[in-house]
C-alpha cells in the first residue's frame, strides 16, 4: 500500500506542476492538435495508395498487359494546371495558385 500512495503522490505532484500549462490549453487547441494528427494520418494513407497505384500500373506496363502513353499523360496533366496556357508549368502558374 505504501508504493500505491507514493504513486498517487507522484501523479498528484506531476499534475500540480503541469497545472499552469494545462489551464492554458483550450478546447480549440486540443481540437486543432487532433485534427492535425488526423490529417497527417490521412495524408500518409493517400500517399501510400497513390504509390501503390503507380506501382500497379508500372507492373502492368512492364508485363505487357497495358500500354501507357506517358507523353500524353504529361501533356494533359500540365494542361489541367497550366493557367497561362503556354504548355509549361512555370513559376507564373504556381503564383496564380498561391
Structural notes for this entry:
With 98 residues, the protein is mostly helical. Helices cover 81% and strands 0% of the residues. The protein is built from 4 helices and no strands. It has helices at residues 2-24, 27-63, 70-81, 91-97. The protein is elongated.
In short:
With 98 residues, this protein is mainly alpha-helical. It is 81% helix and 0% strand.
Main pleated sheet = none
End-to-end gap: 63 Å
Mean pLDDT: 85
Number of DSSP strands?
0
Spell out the blueprint of helices and strands.
Elements: H1 2-24, H2 27-63, H3 70-81, H4 91-97
List keywords for this structure.
mainly alpha, about 100 residues
Amino acid at each position: 500500500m505504501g508504493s500505491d500512495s507514493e504513486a498517487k503522490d507522484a501523479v498528484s505532484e506531476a499534475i500540480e506542476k503541469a497545472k499552469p500549462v494545462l489551464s492554458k490549453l483550450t478546447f480549440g487547441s486540443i481540437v486543432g492538435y487532433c485534427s492535425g494528427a488526423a490529417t497527417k494520418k490521412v495524408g500518409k494513407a493517400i500517399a501510400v495508395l497513390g504509390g501503390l497505384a503507380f506501382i500497379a500500373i508500372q507492373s502492368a506496363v512492364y508485363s505487357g498487359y497495358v500500354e501507357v502513353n506517358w507523353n500524353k499523360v504529361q501533356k494533359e496533366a500540365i494542361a489541367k494546371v497550366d493557367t497561362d496556357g503556354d504548355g509549361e508549368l512555370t513559376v507564373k502558374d504556381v503564383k496564380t495558385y498561391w
